Amino acid sequence: MAKDFPRSRRVAEQIQRELADIIRTEIHDPRVGMITITEVVVTHDLEHAKVYFTVFESEQRALEAVRVLNHAAGFIRAQLGPRMRLRIVPQISFVYDTSVARGAELSRLIDEAVAADTARPADDDNNA
């Protein structure tokens, strides 16, 4: 069973808030566009942070944003340092979170199945 590390969870939540502000105010690259940070996972030793994000555009745009954000990770980490009260600021890597897009696709498929079911004539049990 995995141990729960409340400090790493608190650090991850603070990193998420600070990164949202840094990306919004400091990153002026149009290839990043509007992103939403969905989750930050920090290792228990606080050395590495994996930042999951999503975009509400095409997947091609998301892959471009991953490349740009990972290229700017050093700058972002330098901006994050003074905002955090940590001895060591974690190494940051950005990952495109596909869960939102997959959830939307599943929701669309469910809606289509319900619509198809509703459009089909009902079976009568009385004819048996």
Protein traits:
alpha+beta; GMP Synthetase, Chain A, domain 3
Summarize the structure.
With 128 residues, the chain is α+β, with helices and mostly antiparallel strands. The protein has helices spanning 6-26, 59-71, 73-83, 99-119; strands at 35-42, 48-55, 91-96. It has a single domain (6-119), classed as GMP Synthetase, Chain A, domain 3.
What's the structural blueprint in terms of helices and strands?
Elements: H1 6-26, E1 35-42, E2 48-55, H2 59-71, H3 73-83, E3 91-96, H4 99-119
Parallel strand pairs: 2-3
Antiparallel strand pairs: 1-2
Describe the structure.
The protein has 128 residues and is α+β, with helices and mostly antiparallel strands. The protein has one domain (6-119): K homology (KH) domain (GMP Synthetase, Chain A, domain 3, 2-Layer Sandwich), CATH 3.30.300.20. 52% of the residues lie in helices and 17% in strands. It contains four helices and three strands, in the order αββααβα. It has helices spanning 6-26, 59-71, 73-83, 99-119; strands at 35-42, 48-55, 91-96. A three-stranded mixed β-sheet has the order 1-2-3. α1 (6-26) packs across α3. It is elongated.
Could you say what the CATH architecture is?
A: 2-Layer Sandwich
Annotated CATH topology: GMP Synthetase, Chain A, domain 3
Number of domains: 1
Estimated share of beta-strand residues = 15-25%
Quote the average pLDDT. 87
The number of helical runs is 4
The top level CATH class name? Alpha Beta
| Percentage of residues in helical conformation | 40-55%
Gyration radius (Cα, Å) is: 21 Å
Order of helices and strands: HEEHHEH
**Silhouette:** elongated
Low-confidence parts lasting 5 or more residues at pLDDT below 50?
none
Structural class: alpha+beta
CATH superfamily: K homology (KH) domain
First-to-last CA distance: 55 Å
User: What order do the strands of the largest sheet run in, or round the barrel if closed?
Assistant: 1-2-3
Largest sheet: 3 strands, mixed
